[in-house]
Amino acid sequence: MKGFVFHGTGQAAWEEVPDPAIKDPTDAIVRVDTVTICGTDLHILKGDVPETRPGTVLGHEAVGEVVETANDVHTVGPGDRVLVSCITACGRCGYCWERTYGQCRGGGGWILGRLIDGTQAEYVRVPYADLSLHALPGTVDSKDAVLLADIFPTAYEVGVLNGHVRPGDTVAVVGTGPIGLAAIATARLFAPERIVAVDRAPIRLDAAKHLGADALADAGQAPEQLIADLTDGLGADVVIEAVGAPESFELCTRIVRPGGHVANIGVHGKPVTLHLEALWSKDITLTTGLVDTYSTPTLLRMAAAGRLPASSLVTHTFPLEKMEEAYDVFGRGADTGALKVVLGGEQHEVVAVRAA
User: In 3D, which of 297, 298, 300, 290 has the Cα closest to residue 104?
Assistant: First the structure.
């Protein structure tokens, strides 16, 4: 089969790799139908994730069909159409008992495409299949479902729920890439008074408006003043960091109101300064987190009911064998307008699905 193989910083290729095989009694083999590329895949290519070794097939999000299961797999079987979660859960350790699957100590957590071969291939081995695969309703399109493998549960759990978004809140989302856009879409479920989207790219701000942001702020033009004007000088109740850069994190801590929440989603590759000299007296709550995906079943039900605008984030589709081209387009999003790219399914040529 073929897969997209990491060969070291800045180097990867779509090439022949060995077919996956059952190794453990909780494994399943999935034939990949639809995949997407995540910002964390770009972080791996940049060298920000040193534990990923050269030779690893990248990717941690997919929709596909189960072709083989080991003896201890009971919730799915051959022929089932499934969502492959970005998080693998053993289901037996203390963290899994608390539904914090991202911290699994039984061999799970974020392992696909990081510690073991991932989903950007024609087939993938999924450990602990009972908790790491989700059977898909026939009403959920693959293009919608694949975005529920990572970005929607990440935005919802690590951003909206950790940030304790409540009705009537002012919510500021700093960074309107795919994760930030998903945070806007899921924050709306809690009826905030307003959502302010902050970014430097006009095309991403336009997408934020399309998904329900009430106000737009250019990150390079004093967004602090806009948020102060909207909140009588107090600041936002909840600020969601969805970039992973020192300047964006520090902006978040400047625009949160006393007693507010800063929910960090962004993957940080550089040290960040926490200005406690300015924050110690403000009673703020700062949360970080790796997604646990405990919300995936709920999000799937919402998608099946047509209440989650998942595929509206997809701007480009490609066939699987165009993986290298898809990475190039996604990695140059500021030039290409790419928000989320999807590969596979019934697509046979490169298509720009929606101009933001």
Answer: 290
pLDDT band at 346 (very low <50, low <70, confident <90, very high): low
> CA 288, CA 174: separation in Å to the nearest integer?
15
Distance CA 50, CA 228 (A): 40
CA separation for the pair 88, 292 (Å, rounded): 9
pLDDT in tens, 292-323: 999 999 999 999 998 998 889 999 999 999 99
**Beta bridge partners of residue 63, listed in sequence order:** 34, 83
Specify the CATH number of the domain 2-150+293-352. 3.90.180.10
Q: Does domain 154-287 have CATH number 1.10.10.10?
A: no
DSSP string, 193-235: SEEEEEES-HHHHHHHHHTT-SEEEETTS-HHHHHHHHTTTS-
Instruction: Decide: 289 and 158 in contact? Cβ < 8 Å.
Output: yes
Residues 6+ apart with CB under 8 A from 322: 343, 350
Pairing state between β 28-36 and 314-318:
unpaired
Beta-bridge mates of residue 12:
6
What backbone torsions phi and psi does residue 217 show, to the nearest 5 degrees? Answer: -135, 130
279 vs 272: CA distance, rounded Å: 15
Model confidence at 344: pLDDT above 70: yes
Domain positions in the chain: 2-150+293-352, 154-287
Instruction: Report the distance separating Cα 204 and Cα 74, nearest Å.
Output: 42
Extract the tokens encoding 280.
């110690």
Residue 170: DSSP 8-state: E
With tokens 């970039």, the residue in question is 243
CA–CA distance, 262 with 323 (Å, rounded to integer): 35
Cβ atoms of 156 and 180 within 8 Å: the answer is: no
Question: What's the token pair of residue 223?
Answer: 């967004």
How is residue 325 written in tokens? 């081209």
Q: What is the pLDDT of residues 225-250, one digit of tens each?
A: 999 999 999 999 999 999 999 999 99
